[in-house]
Amino acid sequence: MPADLFAIDPLNLAAIAGMALVTLATRFAGYLAVGRFAVRGRLAAALEGVPPAVLTSLVAPMAFATGPAETIAAAATVLAAWKLPTLAAAVIGVGAVVALRALLG
Amino acid sequence: MTTPAPRPPHDAFLEARRGFLDILPLLLGAVPFALLYGALAAQKGLSAVETGLMSALVFAGGAQFIAVDMWTTPAPVAAIVAACLLVNARHLLMGAALAPHLMHLPKPVRLFYIAIHADESWAVGLKRATRGPGLTSAYVLGMIVPFYIQWPIGGVIGNLFGGLVTDPARFGADFVFTAMFLCLTVGLWRGRPSAPPVIAAALAATLGYLALPGVWYVFLGAAAGTVAAALDPAGLKAQAEREAAHAG
Description:
The complex is a heterodimer. By secondary structure, chain A is mainly α. Chain A contains 4 helices and no strands. Chain A has helices at residues 10-35, 41-64, 68-83, 86-104. The longest helix of chain A has 26 residues, at 10-35. Chain A is flat, with a radius of gyration of 21 Å. In chain B, helix 3 (61-70) packs antiparallel against helix 4 (77-87). Chain B starts with 8 loop residues before the first helix and ends with a helix. The longest helix of chain B is centred in the N-terminal third of the chain and has 35 residues, at 9-43. Chain B has helices at residues 9-43, 48-57, 61-70, 77-87, 90-98, 107-115, 119-131, 137-160, 176-188, 195-211, 216-231, 233-247.
């Protein structure tokens, strides 16, 4: 139904616009709050912790709560990343998860 | 003279290429998800235009998957927007962490980066800013523009040819982000001060994932890790040393 390709439902559009607005708000709020003054001391130490905290939170379900194949592959990825370039370590990790899933069912 | 020598023009090209190459593995990992998102959106009755519009305007993978999962006709607008806000609350912390490293860039580049950063382009940029030679406009644009463009294009293609990608787990594509994010975490590792945020985030996010519905776990883990970093005496000491070195 080619006519449907270009269909825009008003409620769908409202939901999309609302999602876009709240997402932009979250992106700019933190940036604007910090961009206005010098960051130092405890606040700087806290912000220093944000990148590892966010990345760890994103991988936690897969790394710790999905299954043994995923947990072992995550550990293998971390070990590989310590010695190898990022791309090589990521390939090893994905290869490990495919092999371990086949092996462990 | 404080005016820096003008850089030769190929410098910008090299920087843009570096940015592109640094994001490329993550970009390739994102394409199957863009296709999958489009296919799922089609199943929920979203048109190709609506699918592409959402990817272009919202540009947040996790939030879009959850939104499409919740989608019905008529669309539950308030619930979808609320869920989107919750999943993306981590951007409050992410934007705050990125801001100090952007201040030397021209304002349009800065605002553009903040407006369309994803977990991937945020982490790659932060790694270059904190562990590499720092960010340049060309590097940032070489990284974020290709990563941004693939997302709506992949979404529309997935919407049109929906049946092609149904199960990214079969070839390990669902693990690509886990592997890349783990590598980036290792790349950002600063020794002892990095341990509390990682451990606190891992515990809080895992418990949150198991105990709570939806995606509370992302924000819970991010908040717990940030608080742990703020309370850790070793992290505060390292920060004080950096400030002293900077001042002297």
